[in-house]
Every structure is written in C-alpha cells, then in structure tokens.
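User: Predict Iron-sulfur cluster assembly accessory protein's structure from this.
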Amino acid sequence: MTVQEQATDGGVVLTEGAAAKVKGLLEQEGRDDLQLRIAVQPGGCSGLRYQLFFDERSLDGDVVKDFGGVHVVVDRMSAPYLGGATIDFVDTIEKQGFTIDNPNAGGSCACGDSFH
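Assistant:
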C-alpha cells in the first residue's frame, strides 16, 4: 500500500522519514516485538494530547497498519480523532522530533503539545 492509498482510507499515515526514524529507534532497543502506538488522551492546554510510544500489547479494537515493516497501532477510542492524520519526523536546527498534522484538530495551544 502506498502513502497515497493509506491517506485515502481515513487512517493514520506515517511518512517514510518517520518510519525510518521508528525503525532506527527499534533497532537501538534491540526489539522486533514492539509497535508504535499513537493515542489521544485528555490533557494539555487545549483539552487533548497526543501520545506516541512503543507498545507490545494488542488491545481489543486496535487499528493496525504496516508502513514498511513498522507497525502503527491506534486504539479504537483514539481512531476517530486521528483519521487522516500524518505523522512525520523533522530534524532541523529549529526543531527535532515527531510532528502530527491532524485535519481533525480544530486548534492547538501555543506550545503545540495539545489540541481540541
């Protein structure tokens, strides 16, 4: 499945750059049983906060996608908030880390850590 196809099915999209970074982090951990879990939790200035972490669990209702060997998991409660969201990794002088471009976010706080 190409990135374009993944974008049209309404789920989360992981860019090639983000997938490469996740693969590198997993190699550093020496684990091939972990997947990247993306969740939305209450919190932050704007009401909702993203969480990205490695997880070995499989929960009932999880939506799982494969991006070149990187498994991305979204729980069923977070999926509606993340439909069509694109996760990228940036590494510039100004910023380093994962970014989330979410068309479902009505706005975010000034620090960019949370959304509504």
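Residues 16-29 form the longest helix (14 residues).
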